[in-house]
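Table S2 (text version). Query chain:
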Amino acid sequence: MQYHVSGTWVEVGALVTPEQVAQFLEHAVIPSLELLAQWDEQGKITGGVFPGERETAFILNTSSAEEVGQLLTSLPFWGMMKWQVRPLQSIRSAVEREKEFFKKMTPTG
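Corresponding structure-token output:
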């Protein structure tokens, strides 16, 4: 099944020192991006990050919603991001749905 996933960095603003930012980068951001790059290379995801922003969006291919949760929570920056996960219906099934609806709406259907 495919899921549209977007993650936005939760801003903490001026509460963070430059040293803390360096720690976040070293221990959370870079390792998380490395994992996402591996998943991309393995074909688990297709997507990327928005240039100059702290936001990502990708299509995640998994066998279950549980696997979505397992994968996302394995990212070191998981708790620092606000996530939105939406299941996707295939385009082919949407075509079939609309054809069926059309049949019901026409007198000859």
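Notes on Table S2: The chain has one domain: 2-105. The two ends are 31 Å apart (CA to CA).
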